[in-house]
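Example 9 (inverse folding). The structure is encoded as follows.
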């Protein structure tokens, strides 16, 4: 009987604090969970709305009216110039919390990269770009499309091993 009461109390606490808890959970996980328990998520779309367009935000859907899109692959330390309008350089890998391919996780995780950007007006900025978010700089939307190699629980990745494919739109 005590176990039943404790479980009920736990369920009530989670239900009461769900809006606060939900803000700290990636939107992909929320969307998947909300298909199972819709009553917890009556307003999914409003929880993922960014407030500052210059910081990381939810990954946008590609728009058909985008004037140009470029895909560029870089290793740490490499620099690429895109259409004479944007320079991008990966300075370092800050954190890799991706789920290893040989284990089962409740969250896919992400990778954050410290990147140097330089726009067409010589505006330069060093920022953190997170793999599951978009970053807007000088009229360009930068998203991570792919990260290689995949993470394996029994192997430690070296910084020089990372290869990142960015999708950049104007």
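The amino acid assigned to each position is listed next.
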């Amino acid at each position: 009987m005590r176990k039943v009461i404790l479980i009920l109390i736990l369920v009530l606490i989670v239900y009461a604090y769900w809006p606060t808890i939900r803000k700290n959970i990636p939107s992909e996980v929320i969307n998947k969970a909300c298909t199972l328990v819709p009553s917890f998520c009556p307003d999914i779309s409003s929880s993922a709305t960014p407030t500052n367009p210059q910081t990381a935000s939810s990954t946008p859907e590609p728009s058909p009216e985008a004037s140009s899109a470029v895909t560029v692959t870089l290793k740490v330390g490499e620099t690429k110039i895109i259409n004479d309008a944007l320079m991008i350089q990966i300075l370092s890998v800050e954190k890799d919390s991706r789920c290893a391919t040989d284990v089962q996780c409740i969250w896919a995780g992400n990778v954050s990269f410290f990147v140097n950007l330089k726009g067409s007006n010589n505006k330069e900025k060093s920022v953190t770009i997170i793999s599951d978010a978009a970053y807007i700089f000088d009229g360009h939307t930068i998203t991570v499309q792919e990260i290689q190699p995949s993470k394996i629980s029994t192997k430690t990745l070296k910084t020089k091993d990372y290869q990142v494919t960015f999708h950049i739109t104007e």
